[in-house]
Each structure stands twice: as structure tokens, then as C-alpha cells.
């Protein structure tokens, strides 16, 4: 499977560090070192044969340091929840008069494309592991539940106090569930094709069966 070139990795690291203070840069570099070590070892030994202790040694940190940054081995592989908060910020930035469904679709699509394009090779590697490792799939579902909470809260802020929160939650859950199925199909097709474009097509299917009008609680 393809991977980022050293130049791309270096440019990505510089961009990530831009605007951070010294302490935050050190934390970011530690996280990056742990994740890079994990990838090297997993590529060499396989996921199940790689331990947190081995990852710590390869990253030249202690196991306790690894656990300060990541709850468990699965979290080293999977992206943190930043993408959910990024999607929420994009959602809040959409035009105030835009109905919930189109606003959510635009925000989630933008997040998917940005993640896919910025971390293309890394994303492909992670998704391949997710398909192979049950523990990673379970952790991914947990992260998806958190994303539903974050995006539903952002959507409810836009929709106002009269919005039906259950309807909004179902809308978000359907969209993120659709994304999950797209990722599975993409993997079944050997990760060929443009993943964001596939997601856009899936959203068109969902949108065709969902009303774009702002959900409202029944009067009375």
C-alpha cells in the first residue's frame, strides 16, 4: 500500500505545528512519534503481535507516556475525535437560514474530503486495519457514537429550541451510518475510487428519502 513521501510527511508536520506554543508542539511531536512507531511495528509484526510496551520503546517513551496520550492501543491507530469537532465547527459556519439536512451534508462532506486528502495513505492504512481487527471496529463504533452526540448538539444549536432533537439525532446517525457503509464498500472494492465522491452519492440516496425542511416538534 502506498505511503506518504518524507517531503509530504515533513510538510504535514510543519502545518500541524503552525501557531502552536512550545509545549503544545512537544505534545504533538510525541503523539506523532508514538503513532509512527506503532505503524512501523504493526507493518512488521501485525496488529495482534504488537504491544503498547513495544510501541513505547520504539518511540523512545515510557508506556505510561503512551497511556497519557492514548487510552489504549486502538486509539493509537484511530484518529481522535477531532474530526467530529471539526465537522461541528463547519456546521456552525453554514448559513443560518440553511435547513438542517443540507447544512449537515455540506459539513460532513467537507470533513470527509479534508481528512481523505490530507491523510490519504494513512487513512487507507487505518481503514484496512479496521476491516481486519475486531477491536478496532468496536473502537471506531464508539467514536462514531461520540460524533453523533457532537454533531447533534451543533445541529440543535442551529435549529433552535423548538427543534425535535430525536429527529436531528436520527438524521446525524443516518448520515454517519451511511459513511460507515461507504467505507466498507470502498474496502470491498480494494479501496479503488474516490471515497468522498462515493460518500456524496450515498448522501444523495439518503437525502432523497429525508425531508430537507427544518424538523419541528409537534405543536401542543
What is the H/E string? HHHHHHHHHHH
Q: What fraction strand?
A: under 5%
- CATH topology title of the largest domain: Tetracycline Repressor, domain 2
CATH homologous superfamily grouping of the largest domain:
Tetracycline Repressor, domain 2
CATH class label of the largest domain: Mainly Alpha
Overall geometric form: globular
Low-confidence stretches: 1-17
- Find the count of extended strands (DSSP E, 2+ residues): 0
The CATH architecture term of the largest domain is: Orthogonal Bundle
What class, by secondary structure content? mainly alpha
Radius of gyration: 19 Å
Number of domains: 2
What can be said about the biggest beta sheet? none
Residue-averaged pLDDT: 82
Span from first to last CA? Answer: 58 Å
DNA-binding region: 51-70
Domain HTH tetR-type: 28-88
Protein name: NapR3
InterPro entries: Homeodomain-like_sf (IPR009057), HTH-type_TetR-like_transc_reg (IPR050109), HTH_TetR (IPR001647), MftR_C (IPR041347)
Word description of this protein:
There is one protein chain. 74% of the residues lie in helices and 0% in strands. It has 220 residues and is an all-alpha fold. The chain has two domains: 67 residues, Homeodomain-like (Arc Repressor Mutant, subunit A); 131 residues, Tetracycline Repressor, domain 2, CATH 1.10.357. Helix 2 crosses helix 3 and helix 6 runs parallel beside helix 9. The chain is globular, with a radius of gyration of 19 Å.
Short characterization:
74% of the residues lie in helices and 0% in strands. With 220 residues, the chain is an all-alpha fold. It comes from Streptomyces aculeolatus.
Amino acid at each position: 500500500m502506498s505511503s506518504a513521501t518524507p517531503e509530504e510527511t515533513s510538510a504535514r508536520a510543519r502545518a500541524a505545528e503552525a501557531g502552536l506554543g512550545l509545549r503544545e508542539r512537544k505534545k504533538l511531536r510525541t503523539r506523532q512519534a508514538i503513532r509512527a512507531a506503532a505503524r512501523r511495528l504493526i507493518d512488521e509484526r501485525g496488529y495482534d503481535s504488537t504491544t503498547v510496551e513495544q510501541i513505547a520503546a520504539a518511540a523512545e517513551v515510557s508506556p505510561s507516556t503512551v497511556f497519557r496520550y492514548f487510552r489504549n492501543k486502538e486509539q493509537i491507530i484511530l484518529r481522535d475525535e477531532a474530526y467530529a469537532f471539526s465537522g461541528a465547527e463547519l456546521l456552525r459556519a453554514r448559513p443560518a437560514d440553511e435547513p438542517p439536512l443540507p447544512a449537515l451534508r455540506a459539513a460532513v462532506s467537507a470533513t470527509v474530503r479534508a481528512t481523505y486528502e490530507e491523510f490519504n495513505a494513512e487513512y487507507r492504512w487505518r481503514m484496512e486495519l479496521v476491516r481486519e481487527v475486531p477491536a478496532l471496529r468496536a473502537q471506531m463504533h464508539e467514536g462514531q457514537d461520540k460524533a453523533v452526540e457532537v454533531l447533534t448538539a451543533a445541529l440543535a444549536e442551529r435549529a433552535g429550541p423548538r427543534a425535535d432533537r430525536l429527529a436531528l439525532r436520527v438524521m446525524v446517525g443516518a448520515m454517519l451510518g451511511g459513511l460507515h457503509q461507504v467505507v466498507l464498500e470502498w474496502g470491498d472494492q480494494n479501496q479503488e475510487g474516490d471515497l468522498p465522491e462515493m460518500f456524496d452519492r450515498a448522501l444523495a440516496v439518503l437525502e432523497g428519502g429525508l425531508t430537507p425542511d427544518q424538523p419541528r416538534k409537534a405543536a401542543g
